[in-house]
Amino acid sequence: MNTANALRETSDALLRDLDVLVTLEEEKRSLEPGDPRLIELAERIQEIAGRILDGSTRQHELTRVVNAQVDSGSRLAPEASIEETVRPIHAILADWRDAERRAIVAEPGSADEAETAALVGRLRHEYREAQQKASSER
């Protein structure tokens, strides 16, 4: 995978995790003290926060590589911003399918159900944007 695609993929994963984190945190805030879901949601939030930390570290490393590529005039240097680098539609669809499968087996009312619902929404949005960009380039 080239650095432009790796940077886009890492950025997209961070945005998805941030969206899910906000969704779960908002749900957690609405629960009454003593609700057993508080612990489940807090654990899931901690898990996602760890992924965000790892992803931000990876993104930092990738941006250093990209800047070095640009500075050296490398042919491998990205030619567009992260926003303009579209993730392949097949990759978005694969992630979306995985999230839909997780949503089907998630226990109703669980942190996993809330996480997968947010993830499915984010991937649906990403897919629409990729479709629109592909249509406008034709």
Summarize the structure.
By secondary structure, the protein is mostly helical. It has helices at 3-30, 37-72, 89-105, 111-136.
Sum up the structure in keywords.
single chain, 138 residues, mainly alpha, globular
Q: Can you offer a commentary on this structure?
A:
α1 packs antiparallel against α4 (111-136) and α3 (89-105) runs antiparallel to α4. The chain is globular. It has helices at residues 3-30, 37-72, 89-105, 111-136. With 138 residues, it is mainly alpha-helical. Helices cover 78% and strands 0% of the residues.
Mean pLDDT: 91
Are there runs of 5+ residues with pLDDT below 50, and where? none
Q: Structural class of the secondary elements?
A: mainly alpha
Rg for CA atoms: 17 Å
Strand portion, in percent? under 5%
- Helix content bin: over 70%
Instruction: Count every beta strand, where a strand is a DSSP E run of 2 or more residues.
Output: 0
What is the tally of helical segments? 4
Query: Which term fits the overall shape?
Result: globular
Topology as a string of helices (H) and strands (E): HHHH
Task: Report the end-to-end length measured between terminal Cα atoms.
Answer: 24 Å
Largest sheet properties: none
Task: Describe the protein's topology.
Layout: H1 3-30, H2 37-72, H3 89-105, H4 111-136
Helix pairs in contact: 1-2, 1-4, 3-4
